[in-house]
Amino acid sequence: MGIPAWVWFTVAAVAGVAGFALLATDRAQRTARNRERRRWAALRGWQFEETDHVLPTRWESGAIAYYGAGVAKDVVAGSTFTADGRRQVYVLDHETSGKVNSVLVGVRCRRALSVVIELWLPSVPFQRDQMPDLLGPVGSRYAFVSELPAARKLITPDLVDAAEEIGGDVTVVWLEDDWVLAAAPPNSTPARLERLLRDLGELADVIDPFEADPEADAGGEVHRPQFGRKP
């Protein structure tokens, strides 16, 4: 005995309503995050842009290598003080294939490193086609690096202590070029992101102490989010 047509119609209708509800919920959450991020940027006197196609292409490792360059959404750009002085910062929703996979937080150093260091939680399936070399455990994380000898010189007890403060909700912390970056959960609140910025600032102070001319530019050129423009 075949299934009546009205049953298939009912199933399709229910599925359609469920899909619409999920889409509406996702859109509402997205709008709420946008408003929250915008208010936070205004309180800090930072720049805010809804979309930036260029910014994620500045990095190639860590979460960018894992998920792909994607698009930056709800971008906050500014600077903050650390123990060693003012540093440039970015906060953005990292979106790939129409889905926000993480909130990327970056703190800029004054000098570029010659090695990439990725610190992954062991619970994350971090394997990808081209992984850096495995260095081994660094605190509660596993270190993957682009050059073993150079990385060993950088991974000091102070760096390990600073990385341990970042928290178990951050899947990966990585050092690339003149940036210290981390991937936080998509639902991270401004309060959580403030703490993460402080922790990344401490990590930046460890690897990039301010020993240069105090009159020098502390953050270099600030990237202007390119809303509505192609890279």
TrEMBL record:
Region (Disordered): 211-231
Keywords: Membrane, Transmembrane, Transmembrane helix
Membrane-traversing stretches: 6-25
Protein name from the UniProt record: Secreted protein
Organism expressing this protein natively: Saccharothrix carnea
